[in-house]
Every structure is written in C-alpha cells, then in structure tokens.
C-alpha cells in the first residue's frame, strides 16, 4: 500500500511538472525570446532615428550662425543696386573720418553671364589730411557692402589758410590736404526674369 501511494505521488508530481513546463515555463521562454527579438529589431530601427535627431539638433545649434552668414552675404551682394543705401554709408564714413569733401559717382550695372552677377562701377573722390584719407579708405573696406577697389590715385594739394595749414600728410609732406580718386566696383545679383519679361524675384532698386 505504501509503495502504491509513492507511485501515485510520483506520477502526480510528474504530471504537475509536465503541466508547469507546457503551460507556464515553455510559453514564458518563448515569449521572452520573442520580446528579445522584437527589442533587437526596434533598436535597429532606433539607430537611424537617433542619428537624424542628432543631425537636427546640430543644425538647430548652427541655425543662428547660418542665418547671420546669409544676412551678411545679402548685405555684401544684394539683389538690387541699392545705390541710395551705399551713398548713405559713404556719407557716414566721410563724416566718421572727417574728410573735408567727398563725391560719389556710379555707372550702370554690367551683367557677367558666366557668373550671373552684375558689376557696378563706382568712382569716389575725397579730400582731407593723410590721416583722414587713410581712415576713410579703411572704413570703405569695412563696409557691409562688398566694394572691390581697382585703383587709388593720390595727389597733394595746397594748404588751406582758413584752417591754419600745417596738418601732416605723412609721406606727402609739403601739403596739408590730399585729393584721392578711388576707382572701384560693387556687385548685385539681378532678379530672375520670366520668359514673358516679368520679374520673378528681387527688390526695388535703391
């Protein structure tokens, strides 16, 4: 009788183990493998998304720099002659350098078909002491508008009795005033034109 009870107990334990394996442990292991595989798949999908996010954050961080560079370029080479603005800037640097006289002339834009950029010839004449003229030329080079100086002609003039001559002209000693003629070029990117002759882009000229 005791042996029979042990056999029944062993059989019951074996049955419980089989049930536990088939209905609990085996499905759990299968589910764990599936979750692990799904996790690996999602990680593979996540990698390019993280790379895109990193690029987006980097672009956002540099957006202000790109915008500033674009603005500087638009000031340097605008999409219109913007002559009125340039003359205002020229008058400003004339006042800042304290030259005694200034005259600005310009010619019509000439398009270079190979670059799509138009060159505007500019002539500038100023008169002042050596230091004033040097200051003027420095400020001219520092303008936001890109100005390419092709030639500078300098000649000495007589002293101005009304101002009490004697201001130094540096290497041009013997005269208190210098007359300077600057031959230069500015540039513009002309607006695109449609086949019917209408303007597609661009601002009004200054």
Structural descriptors:
3 helices, alpha+beta, 2 domains, 5 strands, 5-stranded antiparallel beta sheet, 206 residues, disordered C terminus
Provide structural commentary.
A hairpin with a 4-residue loop joins strand 2 (110-112) and strand 3. Helix 2 (83-97) runs antiparallel to helix 3 (130-141). This protein has helices spanning 2-76, 83-97, 130-141, and strands at residues 101-106, 110-112, 117-128, 148-157, 177-188. The longest helix has 75 residues, at 2-76. Strands 1, 2, 3, 4 and 5 form a five-stranded antiparallel sheet that branches. The chain contains three helices and five strands; from the N terminus they run H-H-E-E-E-H-E-E. The protein has 206 residues and is an alpha+beta fold. The relative contact order is 0.13. It has two domains: 1-76; 83-188, Alpha-Beta Plaits, CATH 3.30.70.
Write the layout of secondary structure elements.
Blueprint: H1 2-76, H2 83-97, E1 101-106, E2 110-112, E3 117-128, H3 130-141, E4 148-157, E5 177-188
Helix pairs in contact: 2-3
Here the CATH topology of the largest domain equals Alpha-Beta Plaits
Number of strands: 5
Q: What structural class should be given to the helix and strand makeup? A: alpha+beta
Distance between the termini: 117 Å
Give the overall average pLDDT: 76
Main sheet, how many strands, which sense, barrel?
5 strands, antiparallel
- How many distinct domains? 2
* CATH level-1 class of the largest domain: Alpha Beta
Percent in helix: 40-55%
What's the CATH superfamily of the largest domain, by name? Ribosomal protein S6/Translation elongation factor EF1B
- Poorly predicted runs of 5 or more residues: 159-166, 193-206
User: Proportion of β residues?
Assistant: 15-25%
**C-alpha geometry:** rod-shaped
| Tally of alpha and pi helices | 3
Q: How large is the radius of gyration? A: 41 Å
Order of helices and strands: HHEEEHEE
């Amino acid at each position: 009788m005791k042996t029979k009870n042990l056999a029944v107990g062993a059989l019951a334990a074996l049955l419980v183990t089989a049930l536990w394996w088939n209905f609990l442990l085996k499905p759990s292991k299968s589910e764990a493998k599936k979750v692990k595989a799904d996790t690996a798949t999602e990680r593979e999908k996540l990698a390019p998304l993280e790379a895109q996010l990193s690029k987006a954050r980097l672009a956002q961080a540099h957006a202000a720099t790109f915008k500033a560079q674009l603005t500087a370029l638009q000031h340097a080479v605008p999409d219109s002659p913007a002559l009125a603005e340039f003359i205002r800037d020229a008058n400003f640097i004339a006042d800042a350098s304290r030259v005694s006289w200034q005259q600005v002339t310009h010619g019509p834009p000439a398009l270079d078909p190979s670059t799509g950029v138009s060159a505007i010839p500019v002539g500038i004449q100023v008169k002042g002491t050596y230091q004033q003229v040097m200051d003027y030329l420095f400020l001219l080079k520092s303008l936001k508008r890109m100005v390419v100086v092709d030639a500078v002609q300098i000649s000495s003039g007589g002293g101005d009795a009304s101002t009490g001559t004697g201001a130094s002209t540096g290497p041009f000693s013997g005269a208190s005033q210098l007359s300077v003629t600057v031959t230069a070029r500015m540039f513009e990117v002309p607006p695109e034109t449609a086949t019917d002759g209408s303007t597609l882009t661009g601002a009004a000229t200054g």
